[in-house]
Amino acid sequence: MKVAIVGAGVAGLGIGWRLAQAGAQVIVLERGEPGMGASFAAAGMIAATAEMADAPPAEIAFAGQARALWPGFAAELEAASGIAIGYRKNGALMLEPRPAIQPPGTQWLDGAAAQARAPMLAPVAGALWAPEEAQADSRALSRALAEAFRQAGGKLLTGTLVTALEAKAAVTPSGRHEADAVILAAGAWAACLGLPITPVKGQMIALSPSPGAAIPESVIWGEGVYLVPRPNEGERSRLLIGATVEEAGFDLGLTAAARADLRARAQRLIPGLADWTLAEHWAGLRPRSPDGLPLLGRLASGVFVAGGQYRNGILFAPAIADHMRDLVLGRAEVIPEFDPQRFK
Known about the structure:
Blueprint: E1 2-6, H1 10-21, E2 25-29, H2 38-41, E3 45-46, H3 57-81, E4 92-95, E5 107-110, H4 111-117, E6 126-130, E7 134-135, H5 138-151, E8 155-157, E9 164-166, E10 169-172, E11 175-178, E12 181-184, E13 198-208, E14 219-222, E15 225-233, E16 236-242, H6 256-269, E17 277-288, E18 295-300, E19 303-307, H7 313-328
Parallel strand pairs: 1-2, 1-12, 2-8, 4-14, 12-19
Antiparallel strand pairs: 3-7, 4-6, 5-6, 9-10, 10-11, 13-16, 13-17, 14-15, 15-16, 18-19
Helix pairs in contact: 1-5, 1-7, 3-5, 3-7
């Protein structure tokens, strides 16, 4: 079976890897460089509790399935690629208010217990502790998926803009790539091929600790931001802080106002961050569908889509890879709530 995939982010590469492992002849077509879109910008959180607070049951179930797959997925990917992806289950503290319904597997901590887990925190009334939350380095994840895909026999073409999808081909300015199945996994850029996707910009910053300062052990949510610790990232540890939510089309411009606001919110959580150094400021485009749910399934005869992950592209990655492989190979049925036909 020949498959053409449009988009070399975490979703497209993950699907391509799984299909290549299953014996398909797979080519991934990428308009830029692999993993340089939303995958590059992501904080890498595997946040099946924090991100699912108001989600419908189908998405909660899918998130739980994805989180359960992550340990095995990470180990297999590192073995196949030879690249460490920084997967670790380090838990998350979600600061007040206390939820009306406490999610399964979580524990409510009073202020003293919360500060015992994160001594650098400003005084808090309490926090929800979610020990199963995890993270991965999304940039390393993209590199690992690209390498594992190639090792499995997949072909990756960069600098290749797809202008149209047909039942048996992905069309580019330089020609057609014939395939038995075409999968659109182009993130926010799927909007350019007619998908009901809105790009939602998120600006983020990273801080490097001041001399002698320790970074938090766990992810911290509060004040409208999240703080993601990255110990031993390169030469120094960093703390990622995100993210804004901006409907600005495909604009990836950075603003001083967003940078200042992210930092101010983080400093209200951890006052000592005032002495830390700004290490990086960047932005990415999240792909959001009209109802906020993913689009996973068939668009037309021979044409599939894996999109609309919005804030959960890293969390959903292993489940999307497996599910789309099985859909394309006729081994699974579409999840009704995620069926892209719902917008027709």
